[in-house]
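Annex B.
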Amino acid sequence: MLDTQTNRPELPPEIARRRTFAIISHPDAGKTTLTEKFLLYGGAIQMAGQVRAKGEARRTRSDFMQMEKDRGISVSASAMSFDFGKFRFNLVDTPGHSDFSEDTYRTLTAVDAAVMVVDGAKGVESQTQKLFEVCRLRDLPILTFCNKMDRESRDTFDIIDEIQENLAIDVSPASWPIGVGREFMGTYDMLNDRLELMDRADRNVVAESVQIESLDDPKLADHVPEHLLEQLREEVEMAKELLPKLDPQAVLEGHMTPIWFGSAINSFGVKELMDGIGTYGPEPQIQTAEPRKIAPEEKKVAGFVFKVQANMDPKHRDRVAFVRMASGHFKRGMKLTHVRTKKPMAISNPVLFLASDRELAEEAWAGDIIGIPNHGQLRIGDTLTEGEALRVSGIPSFAPELLQGVRAGDPLKAKHLEKALMQFAEEGAAKVFKPMIGSGFIVGVVGQLQFEVLASRIEMEYGLPVRFDQSQFTSARWVHGDRKAVEKFADMNKQHISYDNDGDVVFLTRLQWDIDRVARDYPDVTLSATKEMM
Ligand code: GDP
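Peptide chain release factor 3: predicted structure tokens.
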């Protein structure tokens, strides 16, 4: 049967109830707090605060994680599943620090929507803006949560205007705050004509929800002081007049974002936001792939790796490949084809990430995220199917912006270093280039901090002290063209040529002039700052 709104076949109920999303925000806006409350309402944890407590226990287990904690950033990403009402939510965590934007970008290829959290006093901040641009590239639907309304915050119209202006997206208020700062007492639910009143005393419950007929309902006066009521009536009237009405289709197309106001720490507004994700967030979407797209309702299972993480559990030196299921109904023990190597893989120990633990995934549907422990067979961008040679597309690799040479502190350990570097390259934590001439490696990253993270991980996980030093190169470009032309080009420019961990040819240079020269002198090849992972 066709869905009247989308003109697509209706999804099997198990798939239709899935909502797979990420949270984008600037550090400190409240992402962690909001995540905790999601899990609280999702029944995944008993008490809010556990994500943090658990996280801390895990972090102290290693220096690297310690560093993550000291700097107040989250380097590693994970996925969490929980139920809310009739929905199954899959929340994919995005690393918050700007140095890890490539990782973030790839994470966003695995979700169908994003929740944007802004601080009510600060509005749209730099990192939010950046992440938003990435979502826009994929036309991801965005739902907005304006947090920290219990504190002095900006005027509601100002906040909405700023989002509309800076992000060029229509904003439609799903709720409207009553009072600000100390006077903030709750919201008026614009979609259901209800008052949601906040209880500052108990942070884990929403105190009261008052059903009203309209803003003229005399019942209102029992709950809201006269001066706030007047202001509320005025503002809501203006909002209805000036701001666009919520249009679910525009939300799905990424042209409009509904905004909810609340206070994550007081658990206020969170439930309404969750209802909103269920109602306006999309079902699992069609996945672009070659040579054909993959639709979630297809009977056969397909999925793709968007992240690889090593040493999630220091006791087991395994890696976990995070796989977004693109179609079908996966069952534990299934044999899937690893399309890149054409080899079958029995998926016998897939894991599902529940709030506080990981457990075996007996099954998974399109939209779900599962973790597959492996010893390095699975790389970012890999596709798993029931046999068909499909390759999910659109997972890019970006040219690094910083390059450094790397050497093992102990020259006899060069082989170990190579192994360590290859692991990080496959995880997507760095680009590793082996120069055509000479020995050693050149490592490329997006932000300076990544060098430090790498150095401490190599030392910790491989017992190998390393030294990074300045490289003579500052830019890397992949060389595209037919094989012969690329080989010939490499041969004539040996001092600039390296191979990445897939064996692809990379041109390294310090000068833009060099890049222009190649464009002029070698019409058979092109240099590019991205390559698609396959
Ligand atoms: P993240 O960096 O985005 O993950 O932000 P956190 O969730 O760690 O929150 C940053 C700080 O803001 C913490 O001290 C939180 O306790 C605080 N915070 C989070 N939500 C609220 C809120 O609704 N009101 C107030 N006043 N503080 C909040």
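Residues 304 and 383 are 4 Å apart (CA to CA). DSSP finds 15 helices and 33 strands in the chain. Further annotation is deferred to the next reporting cycle.
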